[in-house]
Amino acid sequence: MSSASASSTPLVALRGVSKTFPTGTHALAGLDLEVRAGEFLALLGPSGCGKSTALRIIAGLSEPTEGAVEWAATATSAGNENRIGFVFQEPTLMPWANVFNNVLLPLNLHGAPASQAAGRVDAVLGRVGLQQFGRAYPRELSGGMRMRVSIARALVTEPELLLMDEPFAALDEITRFKLNDDLLQMWQALRTTVVFVTHSVFESVYLSNRVVVMAARPGRVLTELAIDAPYPREQNFRTSSEYVAFCRQASAALAEAMAEGGAP
Amino acid sequence: MKAAKRLSLPAEQEAVTALPRARAGGLDGALRIALPIIVLGVGLAVWELVVRTKNIPPYVLPSPSLILQTFVNDWALLSRSLLVTLITTFEGFLLAAAGGVGLAVLFNQSRLVEYSLYPYAVILQVTPIVAVAPLLLIYLPQRAAVLACAWIVAFFPVLANTTLGLNSVDRNLADLFALYHASRAQMLWRLKLPSALPYILGGLRIAGGLSLIGAVVAEIAAGSAGAGSGLAYRIAESGYRLNIPRMFAALLLLSLAGIVIFYVLSLINYLALRRWHESALQAER
């Protein structure tokens, strides 16, 4: 599969979105962003550039002060009930429930029949490599495993769009690299669309088809880079000259974003 | 001495001291049990000795041996009274648990209800129950009045703790529930109440002891005899009759009841939380 799998039709688009918080902070100003069906899009920017806010607006967790969120009409689902999966910075698991029940939650809230739901939970736990851990409680797992549970929970509804808000920021590098690889595999197998917020240049280039660089104060899109390297990308991509070149471009864009946004 | 030495160590050395501390755990644990028992033994011995050598009459101060003897001799009477008090306590506790959690949920669901009723909950809490009990006895049948006292004393910690717990929900988890369009009922049953469980259990642990106190206060205020007289009434009655040994025996029984209630609730707390909550994990480390 290559980057050509990302079609040019937007699955969801932010049109002139601004967000002003009651405190008076302008988190976003006139943000235009198209998320194309099937792509892996990285939002890269310094802290405070509103990338998380943009993600929350796409998810419907936050309302834009101005502008609109436009969804492509699809025959499969009315409303955005099953369209979105969200992975937070922290694993955000229910500590009182075991892994199986944590992953079951989205199906449960939608009233999915129990017989069918159990099979789907088992399948998605297998996909993230945790089929043995259904009965474990979150506190009994490592940080990386908790994040896998969180990803499994986001995927269990088979969402069209997976939103990830710096999901691996708190993990050590070894675990992060492993999860990067596993995430790419899942993305290719599931053919879902991913929007991945990160402040790591290396992570954004490694994972995505397209890196959108944002600047802060107020949050806006500064530039975007197409990462035209073919998938599957594996460890040897990390050391390729191609990868280094893309990282240099992304770093330069990020430096510009920092300069524009003022000192953080 | 040992404790002082530990306290004086800087925080960075925590990891280093952890090992010897763990090794000392066995001895420490034994001392923890042995020392209070030694203190009790010495105290009782001195008490017994003083009563015997000074020939203090039992209606002034009974000796421990006499109290124990009374405890055994009056067991039939005392155990019946204990049962009466325990039933009142238990009923008061259940009402306090239901009322406290129920009110907290109601407050959580409706600001208006909270604003309207919360001040009165506070007033009920801060007004000394000893002063309220006689009034309740005027307006309510004795059994209901005793129960009302137990409830009034015990419900507030449950209410306050549950309210705190319901407001302490992880914000990301709340967002997650919103993302999947959870209904209000789903939010309450699947997110807020489980999040609040450690707080609720903490409130219940306090309420257990308080409902015993409420029951005792009301029984003493009620005063009048009856077939179903509780342990507190026995104490008051024995006081009038100068049956001091029985007073002590009844008091001992009340203390034991309080201790048992506390540990039973602690055990429930531990069993409910041991798989997931920090408060119940300490012992494992």
Give the arrangement of secondary structure elements:
The complex is a heterodimer of chains A (264) and B (285).
Chain A: E1 10-20, E2 26-36, E3 40-44, H1 51-59, E4 66-71, E5 84-87, H2 99-109, H3 114-127, H4 143-155, E6 161-165, H5 173-190, E7 193-198, H6 201-207, E8 210-215, E9 220-226, H7 235-238, H8 241-261
Parallel strand pairs in A: 3-7, 3-8, 5-6, 6-7
Antiparallel strand pairs in A: 1-2, 1-4, 8-9
Helix pairs in contact in A: 2-3, 2-4, 3-4, 6-8
Chain B: H1 2-8, H2 14-23, H3 25-53, H4 64-73, H5 75-109, H6 111-126, H7 129-139, H8 142-166, H9 171-179, H10 184-222, H11 231-240, H12 244-273
Helix pairs in contact in B: 4-12, 5-6, 5-8, 5-10, 5-11, 7-8, 7-10, 8-10, 10-11, 10-12, 11-12
> What is the string of helix and strand elements of chain B?
HHHHHHHHHHHH
Rounded average pLDDT of chain A: 89
Radius of gyration of chain A: 18 Å
User: Largest sheet of chain A, described in full?
Assistant: 6 strands, mixed
Low-confidence stretches of chain A at least 5 residues in length (pLDDT < 50)?
1-6
The CATH topology name of the domain at 1-83 and 159-168 and 194-264 in chain A reads Rossmann fold
Largest interface: A-B, 24 and 21 residues
The profile of the biggest β sheet of chain B is: none
Cα separation of the termini of chain A: 39 Å
Briefly note the structural class of the backbone of chain A.
Answer: alpha/beta
What's the helix count of chain A?
A: 8
CATH architecture annotation name of the largest domain in chain B:
Orthogonal Bundle
In CATH's first tier, which class of the domain at 1-83 and 159-168 and 194-264 in chain A applies?
A: Alpha Beta
Distinct helical segment count of chain B: 12
Helical/strand content category of chain B? mainly alpha
Shape of chain A: globular
